[in-house]
Design brief:
The complex is a heterodimer. Chain A has a 6-stranded mixed sheet with strand order 5-6-7-3-8-9, sandwiched between helices. In chain A, strands 2-1-4 form a 3-stranded antiparallel sheet, with no helix packed on it. Chain A has helices at 65-72, 112-122, 127-141, 156-168, 186-203, 214-220, 254-272, and strands at residues 25-36, 39-50, 54-58, 80-85, 95-98, 174-178, 206-210, 223-227, 234-239. Chain A is built from 7 helices and 9 strands; from the N terminus they run E-E-E-H-E-E-H-H-H-E-H-E-H-E-E-H. Chain A is globular. By secondary structure, chain A is of the alpha/beta class. Chain A starts with 24 loop residues before the first strand and ends with a helix. The model of chain B is unreliable at 1-23 (pLDDT under 50). Chain B is mainly alpha-helical. The longest helix of chain B is centred in the last third of the chain and has 36 residues, at 187-222. Chain B has helices at 2-9, 15-19, 35-52, 64-75, 79-111, 113-128, 135-142, 146-170, 174-182, 187-222, 231-240, 244-272. Helices cover 75% and strands 0% of the residues of chain B. Chain B is globular and about 75 Å long. Classes of the chains: A alpha/beta, B mainly alpha. Chain A binds chain B through residues 73-75, 94-97, 99, 101, 104-109, 118-119, 122-123, 150, 152, 166, 170, 176, and chain B through 173, 175-176, 178-179, 181-185, 189, 193-194, 197, 200, 274-275, 278.
C-alpha cells in the first residue's frame, strides 16, 4: 500500500468558460490582465471588436490606449487573458501596424519601395507577386513622390503614407493605427485621413485607431471606444453610423456633433472621477 | 549675395573632407573657400619666423622649407616611403584582424544582453587601460617581431570594435524592431534586417577609433628596441642622431597617414551608413 493518507488535494481552478462575442465579432478579448510596476493597468478586461469596422479608442492620459492595441498586436506581452482573431491566435493572423513616429518606423537603409515590399518578402512571396502588389498599392494611393528615394529624403506626410502602404501591403485582416496623424501637419492629416477612409471603403479592413483628437476619432469611426482611468475599463461604446464617404460636410451634421458631444461628456466625466 | 553662397554650402556634414574634392559648382568664388588653409599657412609662417629670428635653435627646429623638402623627397622614393608603407601595412593588418574578430563578437554580445552584461566590466576595464601600457607584456609573449606590433595594435583596436558594435546593437531603435516584429519577422530576420543595420552607425564610430588606435600603437611599438622599420622607428632613429629634419618629416608623414585614414573612413561611412544623422 503506497497510498498517502491525508494527501493535500490539488484542485485546478476551473477556467472560465470562453464566451464568444456577438455575431460579426472579429477580435475577442477575454480576461485581459496587465500589470505595470505592480499596479493593474487592465484587470479582467473583456472587449469585442467588430469585423469590418473602424473602432476609435479615446480616453484619459495614461489609461493605456496604445498599450491596448500593442497588446492585441503582440508588441507588449500580456500577463494573462486571451485574444482571438476570428477564433485564431495572433500568429495565424496577418496584421498591419502604423506607428505615430514614422521616422523610426521605416527602415532608412532601404529605399522606400523596398520598405513597402518588406512584409511581402517576409511572407515569402515571389518577385512577381511582390511587384504586382506594390504596383496595386501605388495605384490606389495615387503616389506622386519617388518611391526609389530613401525614407529620410521624403517629407513627413510622404513617410507616413509609405508606412500605411507598408502596413496594408500584405492585405492585413486588422490594421492598427497608433496616433497616425499626430506628428503630421494639418494638410497631410487631411490627405491621409481621406486615403484611409478610401482604403476602408474599398477593403472593409477592420481598423483600430488610437487618437487624441476627438474630431478625428469620431470622423473615421463606426464605434468610439471610451476608456476610463486606470485600472482601465470600458466607459462606454458609442455607435456612429453616418454613411461613407464622409466629407467636410459630415463635420457639421447633427449626428456627428451629437456623437462628438456625447463622447466629450463621457470623457470629461471619466477624467473628473 | 556672397552670404547666400555660404548658407547653401552649410549643411555639408564634413566640409573639410569635401574641400579637397571637386570645388562646388559656384560662379562667385568667395574667400570662404580658402578658410581651411588659413590655419596651416599661419602655422608655417610662425614656424618660419621662430627659426629665422633664432628663438629656437635650428638644430632643434629646422626651417619649414627644409623639412618639407625632406618630407617630399623622403616620400618620393626616398628613405621615408618604405617606413610609411610598413606602418600602413601593420596598421591595416592589425585593424583588419580586429574587425574580423571583433564585429561578429560585438554583434553577438549586443544581441544577447545577459552575455554582454557579464563581460561588460572586462571590456570596459581593458578599454580604459592604455594599450601602450601592455606593450612590454606583449614583447614578452611575442618577442620583438613584426607579429608583436600587429598583435598589440590588434588587441587595442579589437576592444573598440567589440564595444561599439555591441553598443550599437543594444541601442537599436526599439520601434524599428517592433515594426519588423509586427510584420511577422522571425528573430533571425529581425537580426539580419534590422539589428545589424541599426548597429552600423555605432559600429563605424568604433571602426574609426579602432583604426586611429591601431596606428597609435603601431607607431609606439615601432619605437621599441629591436624595431628595424616603420615610422616610429624612423622618428626615434632620426632623433638619436639629431637628424631633426628627418624626424620632423617622419612625424609629419605619420600625421598625414592618420589624417588620410580618418578621411577615408569618413568617406566609406558616408557611403555605407547613408542615413546617418538624418
Amino acid at each position: 500500500m503506497t497510498q498517502v493518507i491525508n494527501a493535500p488535494m490539488i484542485v485546478d481552478v476551473p477556467r472560465p468558460h470562453f464566451r464568444p462575442g456577438p455575431l460579426g465579432t472579429h477580435i475577442t478579448i477575454r480576461g485581459l490582465t496587465k500589470y505595470f510596476a505592480g499596479w493593474p493597468l487592465y484587470e479582467n478586461f473583456d472587449l469585442d471588436i467588430p469585423k469590418g469596422k473602424i473602432v476609435s479608442i479615446f480616453g484619459p492620459n495614461g489609461c493605456g490606449k496604445s498599450t491596448l492595441i500593442n497588446m492585441i498586436s503582440g508588441l507588449i506581452p500580456i500577463d494573462s487573458g486571451e485574444i482571438l482573431f476570428d477564433g485564431k491566435s495572433l500568429k495565424d493572423t496577418t496584421i498591419g501596424y502604423v506607428f505615430q513616429n514614422y521616422r523610426e518606423a521605416l527602415f532608412p537603409w532601404w529605399r522606400t519601395i523596398d520598405n513597402i515590399a518588406y512584409p511581402l518578402k517576409l511572407m515569402g512571396k515571389s518577385k512577381a507577386e511582390v511587384d504586382r502588389r506594390v504596383e496595386e498599392l501605388v495605384d490606389s494611393f495615387d503616389v506622386k513622390f519617388d518611391l526609389n528615394r530613401y525614407p529620410y529624403e521624403l517629407s513627413g506626410g510622404q513617410q507616413q503614407t509609405a508606412s500605411i502602404m507598408r502596413a496594408l501591403a500584405p492585405n492585413p485582416e486588422v490594421l492598427f493605427l497608433d496616433e497616425p496623424f499626430s506628428a503630421l501637419d494639418f494638410e497631410m492629416t487631411l490627405f491621409i485621413r481621406e486615403k484611409l477612409q478610401e482604403v476602408f471603403i474599398k477593403t472593409q479592413t477592420t481598423m483600430m485607431l488610437v487618437s487624441h483628437d476627438l474630431e478625428e476619432a469620431v470622423y473615421l469611426a463606426d464605434q468610439i471606444l471610451l476608456l476610463t482611468k486606470r485600472p482601465t475599463s470600458i466607459a462606454d461604446i458609442l455607435l456612429y453610423d453616418d454613411p461613407r464617404p464622409r466629407t467636410t460636410a459630415t463635420l457639421s451634421e447633427a449626428s456627428f456633433i451629437a456623437t462628438k458631444k456625447k463622447s466629450l461628456e463621457i470623457f470629461q466625466r471619466e477624467v473628473r472621477k | 549675395m556672397s552670404n547666400e553662397g555660404v548658407s547653401t554650402n552649410a549643411p555639408t556634414p564634413w566640409p573639410d573632407a569635401r574641400a579637397e574634392g571637386a570645388a562646388p559648382p559656384r560662379k562667385t568664388a568667395d574667400l570662404t573657400t580658402f578658410l581651411p588653409i588659413v590655419g596651416p599657412v599661419v602655422l608655417v609662417l610662425i614656424w618660419d619666423m621662430v627659426v629665422r629670428f633664432g628663438l629656437i635653435k635650428a638644430i632643434l627646429l629646422p626651417p619649414p622649407a627644409d623639412t618639407i623638402v625632406a618630407l617630399i623627397s623622403g616620400m618620393l622614393g626616398g628613405p621615408l616611403l618604405f617606413d610609411f608603407w610598413v606602418t600602413l601595412y601593420r596598421t591595416l593588418v592589425a585593424f583588419g584582424i580586429a574587425v574580423a574578430l571583433g564585429m561578429p563578437l560585438g554583434i553577438a554580445l549586443g544581441s544577447n544582453e545577459r552575455a554582454y552584461r557579464s563581460v561588460e566590466f572586462v571590456i570596459d576595464f581593458f578599454r580604459s587601460t592604455p594599450a601602450s601600457a601592455l606593450i612590454p607584456l606583449f614583447l614578452l609573449i611575442f618577442g620583438t617581431s613584426d607579429i608583436n606590433k600587429i598583435a598589440i595594435a590588434c588587441f587595442g583596436a579589437w576592444l573598440l570594435v567589440v564595444f561599439n558594435c555591441a553598443y550599437g546593437v543594444i541601442n537599436a531603435r526599439k520601434q524599428r524592431i517592433a515594426a519588423a516584429k509586427v510584420m511577422g519577422a522571425s528573430r533571425w530576420q529581425i537580426f539580419k534586417d534590422v539589428l545589424i543595420w541599426e548597429s552600423l552607425q555605432a559600429s563605424f564610430v568604433g571602426l574609426r577609433s579602432a583604426v586611429s588606435m591601431a596606428l597609435v600603437i603601431v607607431v609606439v611599438a615601432e619605437m621599441f628596441i629591436g624595431s628595424e622599420s616603420g615610422l616610429g622607428h624612423k622618428i626615434i632613429n632620426a632623433q638619436q642622431v639629431m637628424n631633426t629634419k628627418m624626424m620632423y618629416a617622419a612625424i609629419m608623414s605619420a600625421g598625414i597617414l592618420g589624417y588620410a585614414l580618418n578621411v577615408a573612413f569618413l568617406a566609406i561611412e558616408k557611403k555605407i551608413v547613408h542615413w546617418s544623422g538624418r
